[in-house]
Amino acid sequence: MAHRWGMAIDLDRCTGCEACVAACHAENNIPFSTPEQAAAGRTNHWIRVDRYYEGAFPDVKVKYMPVLCQQCDEAPCEPVCPTLATYHNPEGLNVQVYNRCVGTFYCANNCPYTVRYFNWFDPVWPEPMQLQHNPDVAIRMAGVMEKCTFCIQRIKRGKDEAAAAGQPVADGDIQPACVQSCPAEAMVFGDLNDPESKVSRLTESSRATHLLEELGTKPKVVYLERGR
Amino acid sequence: MSGNANQPELLPYGKIREDLFRPLSGMTQKYFAAILIPLLIIMFGAYAWTVQLRTGMGVTGLQRPVFWGFYIVDFVFWIGISHAGTLISAILRLTDAGWRKPITRAAEAITLFALMIGGMFPIIHLGRAWYFYWLIPYPNMRLLWPNFRSPLLWDLTAIVTYMTGSAIYLYLPLIPDVAQLAEHSVPWRRKLYRMLSLGWTGSDKEWHSLERAMKLMAGIILAVAVSVHTVVAWDFSMAIAPMWHSTIFGPYFVVGAIFSGLAGLMIVMAAIRKLMGLEQYLTRHHFDNLAKLLLLMSILWLYFTFAEHLTVWYGNDPSEMAVFGARTRARFAGLFWLMVVVNFVIPFVLLGIRKLRSITSGVIASFGILLGMFLERYIIVVPTLSTTRLAAATSSSYTPSWVELAITAATFAAMIFLYLIFSKLFPIIAVWEFKPHPHEDEV
Amino acid sequence: MASLSYLLSEFRDKNAVADAIRALRAAGAGDADIDLFSEEPVEFPRGVLDRPSHMSLVSVLGAIVGGVGGTAFVWYAQTNYAVPTGGMPVFSFWGTGVITYELTMLGAVLATFGYFLWESGLIRKRDKSAPVPVVPPECICLRVRVSGDVAAPTALLRQAGAISVEKKVPA
Lengths: 228, 443, 171
Hints:
The complex is a heterotrimer of chains A (about 230), B (about 450) and C (about 170). With about 230 residues, chain A is an alpha+beta fold. Chain A has helices spanning about 20-30, 35-40, 105-110, 150-165, 175-180, 200-205, and strands spanning about 5-10, 50-55, 60-65, 85-90, 95, 115-120, 145, 185-190, 210, 220-225.
């Protein structure tokens, strides 16, 4: 049976430490920003931790959640791309094809989660960070849109290794960088088509919600609500 | 000179020909300067674009989440201006309104040039503009086709259709006029006019065919024009962004386009009247009619704007109210209310009060309307993008950079430039259409 | 075969032209033999010099070809490179209906223009032998092709009110 990759994020466990953000940067060759570019709103974080502050000091409450591409089943970003640079692959991933992107920005405008990031310039890495590049991941040039891919290179490697060993992919074998690096083990990744996988079981949880569910995008990232 | 102030058709035929063909020879110093300055601005804009192409879109003021900014505003604005010709030529032709006659060619020229300019922006705003041709369906080695479900492909088809139709619609009534110029004194002009006239002899067969074609084209071009700006509006409507996903955008944009097109037309009319000495042909009567139309469109624009905002406010959907607040009370409030003043209040006063209605006041109102319609496009594009559904991603601010401003300025310069060239090549008033049939029993 | 010649006559009054045409028709001239030349279109009441045309039909045909052809092409392209996007079907008539509409209009535009060029004779091979009069301002020139004796048609034209009548042989 084909895979259908999904993710669950337990907001009760998440500490907001942003290790996932750093890991994603390292794994996916995400270009650095300068302070000026950051001030201009041009940082590039395929996964980011959104913070919402409620109340006034000293009763401030902070709510935070990691937000990444939800790999929506009915993604609003897909039908609007004129060159089919973003499409839905058979494993349920919303794939971004860098080679095909001409940079119309329509997909980014239509994403309700604002999880798409653009390469405003050719990427730069301050010395010696360019030595740390992941050879499995393409480096994107200026003018191309990008976003979280659920570490599709790791998915591919996992499937290849399982096929080489003659085994099916076991639950927990494939972990995107963010999932792997979370110290609180708040993130779980797996095959939604496998009813026994951890992510499938978490999706059944009473705490399970989707982000902006009312829009009908059918996201595949499940957020487990914080306890009250 | 003799001739009723409101019936320039009654001027002697020879004088009409002389007046309308005179600009087609020679070039004064003033004209040379008038050509040179826009050309320099265009060159600077082109340079700005090369900087963008070489360095990346980062040289603009765009930022996540405001991924569309000045270029898209420019795009919608210029495609809007292109509706000038359609309204005047097609609608007035279909309703047989005689006062349109000296205006049709000038308006049709505005349409074609505005389309050419506006049509550049789908290329200019691209992150990898050198691959723009990937949107065109052509057989290729990778066996790929573009995505026709995307509103951007609809844009492409609509604009190509409209540009083809407009060019043909401008060319058809030009044929008899260039045939009359086929004996021009300047050799290269002679060659040009002869080639363009396709050997037109003025036989009744040719005239019948031409008139039939023009009548059909008027109807078709009207249908296309309405669809073109609707399709441009649907770039926004089809998105689920708050306050973009509105069913009213189609008609709203068409009305706004006709509105801005008329304003542009009035300015161009006043300019050519002054600069080419056409006071006897473009009379107060024409400007009066244009002013009344402009007033009507202003009221219609207000109606649509009001309807759009009232429904959002009353519905109180949180994502939409965030944008509504940004537009009317918060960051963009200054621009929003300026837009209302300049699009409705000032035209209502200057054009609605008969004592104040004049060519000058019409031109002032029109400049205001052009500014107002530019602001309207800006207010549609930027506040929605700035105010994201996930509030944590809302942007600080978008300000256009020098690159965007240079390219925007270059578009206005390009319009002036193209128009100046056109008016030197072809008579700006269609001579044969303008003079009523000389043997008609009544006009 | 009787010799062909052309009569070029000038008129100032359009009603006179109408009379002349009626007279010539009564004398046996056909619509194909009569041509008018003028600097503006001249309108006559029905029946004087009608030139029936198929332009509307051609326009509609062009529209149909454009619309059907365009939709067929979109269907072919979308199914040939079938890439699923966002839950929308691979080929959706309404999803690409705008393209159908625009290409319908484009078909109509091109058909109208093309037919105009052909029907008006502008791009057809011209009959170079037929003389084209130089039309003085505010005049209408009537050209009649006569085979044989020119005296009778000449008289008819003068009687109708021609300012001048000139005979020309084919070049």
